[in-house]
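Here is one such tokenized protein:
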Amino acid sequence: MDFDLFMERYGYKILLAIFGMIVAGIFAIIGIWAYVALKYLGLLFGGLIIALVAVRSLMNRRILDAQARVFSKYFYDDRRRR
């Protein structure tokens, strides 16, 4: 079996497996971080830290989205120039 036939037959499966491992690794790192925070910092303080990180990430997304809209209005104005 030559390389082209191999990639045609198994290429998407290999790419899907690589992408799946990357996504699983991201979730594993987040899970390990949460476990360590809860174990070493205590349930109350670790839960508070995890909740603050979650709220901060959600708010940061909204803040960055609002900043992108404002900056696009001022820096990427598509009105005709005279």
